[in-house]
Amino acid sequence: MDLSLLGPQSLDELQRLATEQFSRLPSRPGPPASAKYDPLGLPLSPDQGGGLGSGAVASPFATLVVPVREQRAVSATWCLPVADFDTWLACKPQVALSQLLTARADGSLLSLLKREGLGTAIEVGVEEQTRSFAVVTASLALTEAGLAAWPTAMGHLFSYLRLCREKGVPSHVFDDAKALAQLGFRYAEPSQPQAFVTATAASMPLYRPAAWLSGPSLLEGAGGPPTLRQLLGGMTPRAAMVEVCAKEVAPKAPLSEQIYGTRYGRQPIEGEVAAWEAAPLLPELSLPRPNPFIPKRLAIKAPQTLPRKEGVPSPTPSLLPAADGARVHFLADRTFGRPRAFAYFLWRSPEFYTSARTAVTAELFAGMLAEVLQEATYEAAQAGLVAASGVSSDAFTVQLGGYDERLPALATLVASTVRSFEPTQAAFERKVDILRRQLRDAERRQPISLAGYRRGLALQPARFSNEQLAAAAGEVSLSDVAAMQEGVLREAQLEAFVAGNLRENEAAEMVRGVRAALPAAPLAAERLPIRRLRRLPPGGATRQFLAGNPEEPNGALEMYLQVGPDEGDDWLHLLLLSQMIDKAVYAELRTKQQLGYIVQCGSTEADGVRGLVFIVQSSVQPPPELEARLEAFLRLFRGTLLLTSDEELDTYRESLAAQMQDVDQRADGQASRLWAEVATRRYDFGRPWRSSKRMRRVTRDGLIGFYDKYIAAGGAGRCRLSTHVFSQRSPPKGPLRDDPLPDAFFPPTADGFGVDWAADRAVV
């Protein structure tokens, strides 16, 4: 047995607890379990003609699989012997292999697949690992054209593998991987306790005690090159088990897998394998260069004078001078002592959501930009830097993070790329294809997901439906994307937040560089985008729909009780009740009544408006009956609330109060939390600690008063929206209900800039 303990106690106390609790377990020293199977042959060997269970078939074949969701992929899997397991653990050859095959820079396999319009992504991983063998898979996500020419795409994969074998993997590939692993381990952020002990216990049988923590992270020893050579030597066309996964192969998939019923077929590929073996090296492919983004300067720039203390609020950002109405927030790290920094930029603009066509154009533009940035910043990403961009209904965002030395240069590169990259027809077609498949998939989601989507459409009337977006996707052209790129952010309100291991002047200079690369004129206040949320009237409304997947056996109920914006302690009452009800409703509807596997209750917020959501998914009862059962439960729960002991109520309060202020454990988590306050224009940076104090003062009377007003049937403030999603196998007998909703809306969320939140005790 391998045991990992983590706690606030001393090492002596932890050892005493371990001995006390586990010393009675019998200890039977003997050979490891692996001794029984290490001498066995490979379970998936090439002479089986394609894999486990394929019997004595000698000719190679591809397995054709019909997926449930929209997907197009071709993969090659190899079962490869592991000559020295300890060397494999130390050098981790799969890391270098993945970096080679998933590279995005010029000369990479993925860049060639994209340029030819064949593929969109590559994934490489070890599916199974033992002391004697490893199952390695390389999967290519295909375009529609790529599916039709999947042997060509696989030929490119085998050509790149041959290049690696014949030219040899450059030593800097291993050197860079080692350096980055060392940096990642040295400056790792704290793990969650449960995840930490789980991972540590799993590594204990594999590493010597001195390497229990470092072994899984570091790449050590000189075994990398020879072990990878051995790995590559086995990754040949004839040794591969090839799988094509797409709905389009259904006519060639007459067989059915026994456990899940997955349809599949087999296609002989002797000719393809012979062609892959004889194919020459492609001049478009090359091995990667040394990574120029690996950081060298790792000095901590500010004195670490503000260590994190439980219950003590974290420092808050300051405002830097900025022109043209921009707001730039900055927080130098004085707590975590990591050579990392984070930068967030948001340009508010009304131009991204004026119509369904505009929304689709913005989505395609953002997707094409993200693809270009993935290639342009690939080496930076390998070196621990992250760059992401995106478009929402009211803003364009850029988020950056990683080792601070090269972060300003990365920020300028990303900003300058927004208007300078060239949208191509091939990239446009890839993104349109992906968007269409996503929209088709969205209608086949689980019923509870569809119910949430329908609620969103009901409460946010400016939001476009999947049907509207799918229709617009058929109308948009590349010229629309080019026009959006040309005019993007000509007028916008900029808000930025920079945090971490940077000096104030460095942060200001970074923001100036981004603004110079992506200039935007100030946006007039009256043109700022406004998001409106529908105000439900007292009483209730019901809307009913059919599930999109005809094979879905489940129906679902979602009951949403709208509370409203923050007022007094409403948010605290809502959060506390949601915790108490969730446990009880699961016990009643799931465990006792066995209505379905998914029974939940939770609080939610949209555009500053709070609410309580119940979801039940069931194949046993239709949605109206699920709602009747839920209402019966709620009628009885008030009594449960009255009978809850003071001790149990204190436990709930204390648990939530502790959770509220259990934030900012990591530098990235702190930056993300503070940015959320900025992006929503709330700027309430001390909210967790103030909310925690107020939670401890919530009373039973206040809780019951809130329940009677907003949750109990007939409550004066109860505003219910019930969404029913029926299985197509069990539709309602009559027409689907579609109760009308009034055109009444909550006021837009106010700008919280300059509010003295510490003094405003009416808002939490």
Describe the fold and architecture.
There is one protein chain. This protein has 764 residues and is an alpha+beta fold. A hairpin with a 6-residue loop joins strand 6 (255-256) and strand 7 (263-268). Helix content is 40%, strand content 18%. The protein has a seven-stranded mixed β-sheet. Strands 8-9-13-10-12-11 form a six-stranded mixed β-sheet, with helices on both faces. Strands 14-18-15-17-16 form a five-stranded mixed β-sheet. The relative contact order is 0.10. The longest helix has 23 residues, at 570-592. It is globular. It starts with 10 loop residues before the first helix and ends in a 38-residue tail after the last strand.
Oligomer: single chain
> What's the overall average pLDDT, rounded?
92
Distance between the termini: 48 Å
Q: What would the principal axes of the Cα set say about the shape?
A: globular
Q: Level of helix content?
A: 40-55%
Rg: 29 Å
The main β sheet shows up as: 7 strands, mixed
